[in-house]
Structure formats: C-alpha cells, structure tokens
Amino acid sequence: MSARAEYDVFVCHATEDKSAVARPLAMALAAREISVWYDEFELRIGDSLRRKIDAGIARSRFGLVVLSHPFFGKGWAQYELDGLVTRSTDDKQVLLPVWHEISKEQVADQSPSLADKVALKTSDLTIDEIADQIADVINGDGESAPDALTQAE
C-alpha cells in the first residue's frame, strides 16, 4: 500500500443510493474509527471534483463500491470505479463490493469481473453488520471474513 494513504476506504456510489446505503455506511464506518473518503465529508464549494476524487482514490487503502442499477448508469460513479479497479489491479488497493437491490446476474450483465468478487448484500445484512465486516477486513481481522463475506448470489 502507498505510504501516502490518508484514508482507509474510499466510498464510491450512485447519488440514488446515498441516503439508503452510502451515507449511513460511511457514518457507521467513521463511528468504528475507520478513516473514510466520502463525498459529503470531503467536497467543499469550489473544489475540483476530478482532482478531489482522484486524490481520494490515490490516498485510500480500500475502495468500497455500492453496486446498484443506478450505479451502472452514472458517469462519475463509473469514473471512480475505473480508478479503483486500476489501483486494485496494481495491488495498491482492495476492492470491497456491496450490492444494493441488484442480483449477481445483473452485476454480471454489466461487469463480469465485478460479479466474480465476493460481496456483501444489503438485502441480507443491515448497514451496521456490513460496517462491522468491512471494519474487520480493513483492520486486518479478516480471519473471520470468509464466514462474513459470502459470495453474493
């Protein structure tokens, strides 16, 4: 991981998923003392979106992606995902997918490589349960992760 990492996790999501998943999950992770790059925490009036997003991705150890139907139609979400996938394939970051109101088949239709990732589903777990499992992975308590992180179906 980069010595410049300032954040444990970068939260990538579609605006439509902000109130149901992204905001409560970002807040739950912050409450668990996880350093979170989340747009509402970091962006200020006059900021360059591209520069702030790029810096957030570059300085995060993990990339949390809330995948949903709206996500795949959003330009900024796809831009962020491209950056996260690049860092993931360079072994500079780990991608953590959360599926919201979407099935494995629907994810596979949009991105077969993302459908192959072990994911958490909002239909199976509460936001607090998801936050606990993500915090365990980020804090290196991943020994319990195989039980917690199940292949989404």
How does this structure look, described?
- Helix content is 46%, strand content 16%.
- The chain has 153 residues and is α/β, with parallel strands linked by helices.
- Strands 2-1-3-4-5 form a five-stranded parallel β-sheet, sandwiched between helices.
- Helix 1 (18-31) packs across helix 7 (127-138) and helix 3 (49-58) runs parallel beside helix 4.
Could you provide a short overview of the structure?
With 153 residues, the chain is an alpha/beta fold. The protein has 8 helices and 5 strands; from the N terminus they run βαβααβαβααβαα. The chain is globular, with a radius of gyration of 14 Å.
Rg measurement, Å? 14 Å
Roughly what fraction of the amino acids lie in strands?
A: 15-25%
Low-pLDDT stretches: 144-153
Structural class, by secondary structure, is alpha/beta
Average pLDDT over all residues: 90
**Strand segment count:** 5
SSE order in H/E notation? Answer: EHEHHEHEHHEHH
What separation lies between the terminal Cα atoms?
30 Å
Helix content: 40-55%
Basic shape? globular
What kind of sheet is the major sheet?
Answer: 5 strands, parallel
Number of helical runs? Answer: 8
